[in-house]
Design a protein that fits this description.
seven-stranded mixed β-sheet; two-stranded antiparallel ribbon
Length: 183
């Protein structure tokens, strides 16, 4: 499926919830894609092609919807799967990275043995908004001397500037579709 057809196919199946979690925000609900076997298969196949081209060694996914995509992708490609969790959710020794939110700060963590130095990591999440979480995740993998070779997301919200920040940081970005706030 070409990229335009793929984007249109997925966008037609993503639910938009207006005014959630606050007035004026259009929430893009990807759970509808997880409930549609054909859409889910098409997403994983599209991401699999990218992973093969990038020479990925490890799939790393962001808490929580990223886990669904990352787990399926890891299974499909027979690659190790690393969880990037919210602070305090991993019981082993961890590396922590703080990042800014609109309303404060948050922290994410990976296990100190999440992957080996030099391994090529693909970061996976459901969507790219401001890019803060994904940039923080990339810093976590730098702490274990791994190489983040790309970022994959179902949705890009380019008006929020996250994908531009990721590219400025030298991270290739692959999203399957994008939404403007007016859509």
């Amino acid at each position: 499926m070409d990229t335009t057809r793929l984007a249109n196919f997925l966008k037609a199946r993503i639910r938009t919830v207006p005014d959630w979690p606050i007035a004026g925000v259009n929430f893009r609900d990807v759970t509808t894609l997880f409930n549609d076997p054909e859409a889910f298969r098409v997403m994983i196949e599209a991401f699999s092609l990218d992973c093969t081209q990038l020479g990925v060694d490890v799939i790393a996914a962001i808490d929580a919807r990223g886990f669904i995509i990352g787990g399926a992708l890891s299974y499909q490609l027979h690659k190790p799967f690393v969880l990037v969790r919210k602070k305090g959710k991993l019981p082993y020794t961890t590396h922590t990275e703080d990042y800014a939110l609109e309303y404060g700060t948050a922290s994410i963590q990976i296990n100190t043995d999440a992957c080996a130095p030099g391994q090529r990591v693909l970061l996976v999440d459901d969507l790219i908004a401001t890019g803060g979480t994904l940039l923080a995740a990339a810093k976590l993998f730098a702490k274990v001397e791994a190489e983040v070779v790309g970022v994959a997301a179902i949705i890009d919200l380019p008006e929020l500037g996250g994908s531009a920040k990721l590219r400025e940081a030298g991270l290739p970005v692959h999203s399957l579709c994008s939404f403007s706030e007016s859509e």
